[in-house]
Amino acid sequence: MSQRGRQETGAFLVEGEKAIKQIAENRPNDIIEIVTVESSSRSFSDHPVRVVTEKQFNSISPAKTPQGTMAIVRMPEEINTDELPESAGSKVLLLEDIQDPGNVGTIIRTAVAFGFDGAILSDKCADPFSPKCVQSTAGTVLSLWIRRTTDHLKLADRLKMKGFSLIVADVNGTDDVRILSSNNRLVLSLCNESSGPSVQLMKLSDQVVGIPIDRSKAESLNVAICGAICMYLSTTECNDSVADPESF
User: Fold this and answer.
1) One domain for residues 101 and 45
2) How far is 189 from 170, CA to CA, in rounded Å?
3) Last residue of a domain, one of 75, 103, 132
4) Do residue 53 and residue 84 come from a single domain?
5) CATH number of the domain within which 69 lies
6) Which domain does 222 fall in, by range?
7) Are residues 85 and 150 in the same domain?
8) Which residue, 195, 172, 190, is CA-closest to 103?
9) Nearest of 49, 17, 228 to residue 139 by alpha carbon
10) Residues 114 and 39 reside in one and the same domain
11) Claim to verify: residue 61 and residue 120 sit in the same structural domain
């Protein structure tokens, strides 16, 4: 299903039983229909099931190696709005112009694993409901709220007015990355690897952190890896372990 198709129908595809089960556990009412080949297991009796031939399924599936089962899932109506949810939570991602769908999906999956409540994406980010992105989320794409908008910085500013700290992770950041463990209300921003954070984002930020690496051997980290490290450091479980500089 193309991006235009997703926008027109308000739905997206999730392929593979594990990913579908993840969706079913969190948002069962958003599953419109299960499409499966005749030989596949019937694991989703609570939802409408359409049985198709393998040839028909392969013509629908965007995957190089179709898995034989997919779900047609309703997209959140508020995905493209410029309004924050009434309860934004305490930890939010801000993704600016990250164009690789695999990276966006991996970051979303990691955010869910580390207890982030939502994600704000700039309109130049990869579509979080594209097939590759959904596949990379392993079915967690509906496990947090998402906004994809041209006004991503305005939403971040509104969160700042609610007491959130906006911390940008950047290869040239000079603030200690361990400060992430001391923020109870956090907006963590990850940006395009090539261009880095925009001037406007830098002006809005409270701090810009960098992860110490051996620059003589590696110039930088992949943005999804950088995000995973930062999100781990933001969890309460690791506060004690990062409090002592010798432990980092």
Assistant:
1) no
2) 9
3) 75
4) no
5) 3.30.1330.30
6) 79-247
7) yes
8) 190
9) 17
10) no
11) no
Give the other-Cβ count within 10 Å of 219's Cβ.
8
Helix axes 223-233, 101-113, angle to 10 degrees: 10
Tokens of 129: 């409901």
How do strand 69-74 and strand 11-15 relate by DSSP bridges? antiparallel
Secondary element (H or E) of residue 137: helix 131-137
Q: Using CB atoms within 10 A of its CB, is residue 117 exposed (0-12), middle (13-18) or buried (19+)?
A: middle
Domain boundary among 41, 75, 109: 75
Q: Is the domain of 68 the same as that of 191?
A: no
Q: How far is CA 81 from CA 122, 149, 158, 173, in A?
A: 12, 7, 14, 31
The Cα 168–Cα 94 span in angstroms is 9
Taking phi over 0 as left and psi of -120 to 50 as alpha, with beta for the rest, 31 belongs to: beta
Exposed/middle/buried for residue 14 (C-beta within 10 Å: 0-12, 13-18, 19+): buried
48/44 Cα distance (integer angstroms): 8
| 190 DSSP β-pair partners | 95
**Residue of higher predicted confidence among 123 and 3:** 123
Percent share of the chain, pLDDT over 90: 74
Entry pTM: 0.90
Q: Give yes or no: residues 163 and 218 share one domain.
A: yes
Instruction: Say yes or no to pLDDT of 91 above 80.
Output: yes
